[in-house]
Amino acid sequence: MIKYAIQHTTAAKRFVGTIALGCCLTLMLMMPLTLQAQKVTKADADSAYTHERYQQAIHIYEELLKQGEDADLYYNLGNAWYRTDNITRAILNYERALLLSPGDEDIRFNLQMAQSKTIDRITPETEMFFVTWYHSLVNLMSVDAWAWLALVSLALAIILALVYLFVDRVWMRKTGFFGALALVMIFLLANLFAWQQRDKLLHRDGAIVVAPTVSVKSTPAKNGTDLFTIHEGTRVTITDNTMKGWREIRLADGKRGWIAVETIEII
User: Fold this and answer.
1) b/e per residue, 10-43, with b = 16+ CB within 10 A?
2) Alpha carbons 49 and 54: distance in angstroms, whole number
């Protein structure tokens, strides 16, 4: 009886091991097919958009974005929503694409075109020209592009510093010194701009109104005084998110007030 039990246990272990090995081999064989299916899915999304099957394209783009954010996917998704006349969703996705790729002129153009179809006409507050210039400079490239520029600048600065230290010719020493100094400045500025772009991605305070009409309140309560009304597609900046169910927002023209959290969607 003992010998039989041992043999039975050994056979069971072998059977389980065979099943496990078969499962592993099956998964290994399926992995390339899965990766290929993911590539086909992206191609299917583009094909659906090209053939004007916009709802199908929207569904596929949104599924792909669940795997990770991508500026091109947001841009294509915004275009698909725009083609279905859903201007609000188009603006939201253009804004998300622009957040990831702030220097892309195509995204910015399509966003401005979509914003021109919204109800609200808000004139931004005036600011000093150098502030506008600085913001334009920061938004010239994405966080990754600024980071690469910083690395390249540092590498070139090191090379020019070596030229200054070890080359005898005066003009080359001057070139090395001043070139290295300029590149160090570029390195520092690129790091600053990359940090600011990264901070925008991590602490997102921009939002788009998704409700058809929203009454902005003086206090975070339904019985609060109505200050003004805004409509879907309008971009707002969240200035206070500490109240449950409510957000204090600021418009581009400086107006402030409270709105219900379900009436907006974070960019």
Assistant:
1) eeeeeeeeeeeeeeeeeeeeeeeeeeeeeeeebe
2) 5
From residue 127, how far is each of 19, 28, 64, 130 by CA, in Å?
70, 59, 39, 8
- 39 pLDDT band (50/70/90 cuts)? low
Q: What are phi and psi of 179, to 5 degrees?
A: -65, -45
Average pLDDT over residues 165-180: 93
217 contact partners, CB below 8 Å, separation of at least 6: 224, 225, 226, 227, 257, 258, 259
CA–CA distance, 204 with 200 (Å, rounded to integer):
6
Neighbouring C-alpha atoms within 13 Å toward the C-beta of 257: 20
Please indicate, yes or no, whether the overall pTM of this predicted structure exceeds 0.85. no
3-class DSSP assignment, residue 265: strand
Question: Are 46 and 76 a contacting pair, CB within 8 Å?
Answer: yes
Measure CA 84 to chain center.
23
Average pLDDT for residues 231-244, to the nearest whole number?
96
Reported as a single tens digit per residue, the pLDDT across 143-169 is: 999 999 999 999 999 999 999 999 989
- Alpha-carbon span 173 to 64, nearest angstrom: 53
Please report, as a single letter, which amino acid is at residue 266.
I
